[in-house]
Amino acid sequence: MVGLSVLLGPLVDASLIIAKWLAVPIKNQYGYLFNYKTNIRKLRERAEDLENSRASVQQSVDAATRNLEVIKPDVLAWMNGVDKLKEEADKVLQKSSTGVSWRFKDIKSRYSLSKKAVKMTKVVLEFQEKCKFTKFSDPPLPVEITDFTHLSYSEGFGSRVSTRTEIMESLKDDSVFVIGVCGMGGVGKTTMAKEVGARAKLENLFDVVVMVDVTQAPKKKTIQTSIAELLGLKLQEESLAVRAARISARLKMLTRVLIILDDIWTRLDLEELGIPFGSDRQLQGCKILLTSRNISACNQMKSDRIFKISEMPLNEAWLLFERTADKTFRPDPNLHQVARDIVEECGGLPLAIVTIARALESENDKSMWDDALQRLRSYDLEGEYASVYSSLEVTYNFLESDEMKHFFLLCCLFPEGHDISIEDLLRLGLGLNLFKKTNGVSEARIRTDAFIKKLRNLNLLSDGGDEQCVKLHDLVRDSGLKIASKNNLVFVVKHGDGLKFWPSKFTDECCTSISLRCDEMSNLPDNLNCPKLELLFLVGGNHPLEFPTNFYDGMVELKVVVLKGMLVQSYPSSFEVSTKLRNLSLEYCTFDKTSDISMIGNLVKLETLSFLHSDVKELPIEIGNLTQLKVLDLTGCSDLFNIAPGVLQRLIHLEELYMRGTLIRWQEKQITTSISELNSLSLLNALEIELSVYDLLPNDFVFKRLERFRICIGFSIESKMFQNTLKVRFPTHWEDGGMEVLFNITEILHLHGWRLLKNTILSEPKRSKFLKLQNLKLEYCDLSYLTEIRDSQYCETTVREITVDESVIWQFPLFGNLHDLEIVRCVNLKGIFSLAAPTDYLKLERLKITGCDIIEEIFLKKKRGQDDKSIVDIELPNLKCLILEDLPRLTCFCKDVTSLVLPQLLEFRLRNLPNFMDSNVIQDIRSSTNHSFFNQKILLATQLKVLSIAKMKMSEIQKHMLPVSSFVNVRVISLSYCDDLSSVALSDLLNEPSDLKILHVESCNLVEVVFDIQTMMLTEDNGVLNSLTNLELEKLPKMTHIWKHGPETFKGFQNLTKLSVASCNRLTYLFSPTIAVVLSNIQELSITECKRMTVILDEGNEREITPNELLFPRLKTLELIDLPRLRSFYLGLHAFIWPLLDSVWIDCCKEMMIFTAGTSSTPKLTEISINGQIHAMEGDLNTDLQRLQQQVNGQNHAMEGDLNTDAMEGDLVLQWLQQQVTDPQWMQQKVTDPQWLQQQSNDGNTSDSSFTSSAIE
């Protein structure tokens, strides 16, 4: 047994080990069966615990999501895992709930479910352990501009699209870091900034785009908080420096970020806010976009580029109004005209347009629209329009002083839409004693200029028609008047038509200023009680207007009286009550023979007296009593021949004297004052005077005291722009009369006929410094004088313009700062500049060369005494205007260079240069020289605005002017007498400009179509040439269509207001229905001498015009002249509604008996011109045209009858001449036979032609 145990022992031990190893799994497997209910219960309990944990986490996630926080990825993964685990657990528990017995068939299911429950419980416990998160979310991401509704804001608005495009290009420019957008309040700066930001993000230019509203009174901590929140950063620190450091650190973590700072008013220190700036900005991908009403703020922020947003043009304003209120008024034609008037009153200000359109979009009652229009016209900006006023009031409150605020309000006294003279503002301010702490008129003028500049910078004022004027937006003016009423400055301003009565209800005791147009008033009121009135501004119509004797009695504080365009019969006695009067302006006034201006001498406190363009005939001795007078303006007093002797010398405080356009007979000293009286005026510093001859100037004249002057001897003063001017014609002698002292401050010098005076002015450079000379014109003078100026160190940097007369011997001086050069008919010139001396032309801004017959090139490479240098390109970096005309031998700019680069060129005019860039001429030169310029190119700037080409070979021009994209911003194109210009070439040229406003095409014999729509670039949103306002086509003999092949959905030409077509004899009609619908803004239409034209509007093969389509609703003027085949404007039955048409001229259109086959409505048309005769309208256009044409035709028939009689009488004469030879008795018998005479009368012109012909022979 022992042996057996020894043998079996190891096997038994092994069996025990195996049994133990197998016992545990077997026990577990049986455990799944016997512990089934326990396992299921544990799973259910643990699953419920996990679900509760999941709900708790979900609450935390929801809270973080509401705060725009970013949920951590592990939290989201856990929640997703729990959701999947719950689905699986629910399946197990669902099956267990059906009941599983110990029956043999359920043992397997009992085992399987129990086993799954155990495993799943383990996983549930693991998920339960992981739910103990320390942090559920991260701070929110930067709140960027994600409102992409702004992407389409500017679409359709050409003025906005072009600005937006330029801003986007600047954002892409690596050299640009700060961009400014400026404009007046309500013009759309913020909207533009939002659109730019949205597009920048969409185009992936920046990773982060944030926008912050800065406001007028910025608080740095508030701005920091806003930026930080937008960057997902929480700032809890109080220190500005620490907060700035954190913001800067956050920005440096971002690769590309755009920060938009909206509504900046003054300089903001960006580094103090934590925004990289200065040298650091180049190291970071951070760019700044600013918006501001104040252009000075943009400059203070060191903006690399500044873009100004102006008011919308009328067509865009109308489109914006349509988009906002379209559902209301478009179906109702009764609202169409009042809507147009409302848009015009808004003056292109988007804020006003949108505000009013939204206020009216649910109104169908026309009276509500009429009320809105009336309120706009009467500056009643309350209620729903208050946002317009409040926006502008914010800018007003920003003005730095009460003095400037009052100055701005003075601008509101002038008629809306009119130019406001800066000189008028100065004199009103002087009269009101507005300029505090100034000494004299010259300092007040400086203050005025400063005010004007600041108001312009704030966009409260805009540029006027010339540099001497400014303009005020109508809504700015209306807001200013409302502001004045809130600040104890009660202004009464009425300059509309039809004011027949004095607005007495406004002129009460609080009124401080009255400005009225009273040209329809018959009389003025008496007993006015205006004790606070300081300014009275009346504009008349040169008709008698009676001033009551007590008119001024109630105006004891009156300081300024301005009467314009009045017929002055007499002055009321109460005028002398105005003892505080400081400014009296009687401008454009007519004085009755009985009117006596001597009483003005009693207004001893008067400081400004103006008779501008009035017919005053003499200044009486009493005017000399005005010893406080500082400004005397006699400009344009062409009837003024006499100033009483002694008057001028008694005006001891006179500082400024203006006498342009007067005809004082200075030489008749016994009749009038002597010009030498001016010598006694020690304070005189401004003088404007015209003298007939040089000899009138006395010795020791007042020249040395003058600061501002325009002195013309033998010339008249022409320009409105006041620049220090000295013009002298044919001086008989030149002595030291003191005029030389003016040369230091002379800006315009014009010398004529100085050939014999070689040892005078220009030969003494040490005495004649010409420090400020801008314009030099020499006629019939010895040019050697300029050689003397050239050698002077003083004139090297001052001469800016030279106009050389044909008789001048050309010895061109070297002016390194020459800005403006005009060369006319210098017949011996072969070239202008030397390439060896580039300083002669580097600063040139304008170059005009005309009528120089032998010039072959502008730049000459070789200069005497210098070696050749290799020059590839010529660049004129500052040239803005280049005009080349009538240069028959000019072939190129320079034979020795490859290209001419003109990066700043704005205006380019070429005319009659037959050999310019001609391939044949160039080829000939190429074969005879080492330097080829066959491929010479003219590289123009993309900002070119004006392109004019006449009598040129267009094929050569287009070949050598590259790139074509140079024309993308051209605003004016004029092409005339270009015989090789084809329709295809014209379409290619017109494909480029996006901002073209004026197009003139004349005498181009190959042009058949001007706009071939199919070949032009069309997009779904943008139309073709939407900026074009003026189209002029003349003498195009092959043109059959202006517009051709346009789809029915074609868009374009939305701003075209004037169309003129003349002498285009292959045109049979002008518009198709598609084009007629597109041209909704046409205001002036003129068609002349088109011999084949039969109708203006023709459907042809296109669709019919629908009854509801408004065609040419803005048409004001229609001219149809010399169209012999014209039958009608339109032969269809469409009803034309032309609410603005007020002028119709029809001349030599003998076939035109009806205007349209349908009806026409022209409420403003009161008369019509037929063949040069003006006729009053009695019915509509159709009936009146038919009636008048029948009258004209009847007159023509009568004239033809007269002509027949004349022809008969002529035949009688011819027969008489012939019969006299053969039968002298024949004529006497015939002329006494009544039957024969009757027969001749009936036959008319049917006499025997052979007989007549033989008689003529």
Automatic annotation (TrEMBL):
Signal peptide interval: 1-19
Which GO terms label this protein's molecular function in UniProt? ADP binding; ATP binding
* Record-level GO BP terms: defense response
The record's annotation in Pfam families points to: LRR_RPS2, NB-ARC
Region entry Disordered: which residue ranges?
1228-1257
| UniProt keyword list | ATP-binding, Coiled coil, Leucine-rich repeat, Nucleotide-binding, Plant defense, Repeat, Signal
Q: InterPro entries under this entry?
A: AAA+_ATPase, Apaf_helical, At4g27190-like_LRR, LRR_dom_sf, NB-ARC, P-loop_NTPase, Plant_NBS-LRR, WH-like_DNA-bd_sf
- On whether Repeat is a keyword of this UniProt record, the answer is yes
Q: Which residues form a coiled coil?
A: 33-67
Q: Which residues form the AAA+ ATPase domain?
A: 175-313
Family label: Belongs to the disease resistance NB-LRR family.
State the name under which the record lists this protein.
Answer: Disease resistance protein
